[in-house]
Amino acid sequence: xxxxxxxxxxxxxxxxxxxxxxxxxxxxxxxxxxxxxxxxxxxxxxxxxxxxxxxxxxxxxxxxxxxxxxxxxxxxxxxxxxxxxxxxxxxxxxxxxxxxxxxxxxxxxxxxxxxxxxxxxxxxxxxxxxxxxxxxxxxxxxxxxxxxxxxxxxxxxxxxxxxxxxxxxxxxxxxxxxxxxxxxxxxxxxxxxxxxxxxxxxxxxxxxxxxxxxxxxxxxxxxxxxxxxxxxxxxxxxxxxxxxxxxxxxxxxxxxxxx
Length: 259
Prior knowledge:
- The model has no long low-confidence stretch (mean pLDDT 94).
- The protein has a single domain (31-155, 162-255), classed as Thiamin diphosphate (ThDP)-binding fold, Pyr/PP domains (Rossmann fold, 3-Layer(aba) Sandwich).
- It has 10 helices and 7 strands.
- The relative contact order is 0.14.
- With 259 residues, the protein is of the alpha/beta class.
- Helix 1 crosses helix 7 and helix 3 packs across helix 4.
- Strands 2-1-3-4-6-5-7 form a 7-stranded mixed β-sheet, with helices on both faces.
- The N and C termini lie far apart (53 Å).
- The chain is globular.
């Protein structure tokens, strides 16, 4: 009797820098996608053993459970300050923060602006889902006009609560910033572009070229009140027009890096 041999090609495996830990994120949340991209980049660049992550308060407060690298937890909004201290004390380490929009653009606004202005040689991964996730779905600095949240049940009124803050555009104006871009996690093409940007941001740090930030538009199906599948379309239809994707600051020295 003939034996049938079925050949299979391995197209994906869990990154070595990823731990085998069940996720605590809501269905449809793209925090997990962002984690995976960071882990893949750490593996490919072979820098896992010399990397230190900093996660503050927010949905990603347990990021240290998912990446097999050194991690510290910062007070709400203070990740850039802690990362600054670590990088100055241990300049040979690769230091990055992983922050949400409520954390980075609200309570931590002063920290991130001055870290960028000083040109601190750290990398920031900024998750923008236009809402406070962990604390109950309140309005964030990035919440869209008219968007309903638990603290703006009738929708964000710009006459009362102002307009959304575009962090990438703002930080790109600072001389200390070497690389500031915005990407999205809503489909395979943009996920690939996000990974490339994360790698470039780490390369900027390794070359000592100053502050780098990758803003990632992310989903929050629970906070938005939509299904996981619907959240991908919602991001594309509503968030990208408000937060256009693109490269907002690539300094000449960064552009010269041979990747």
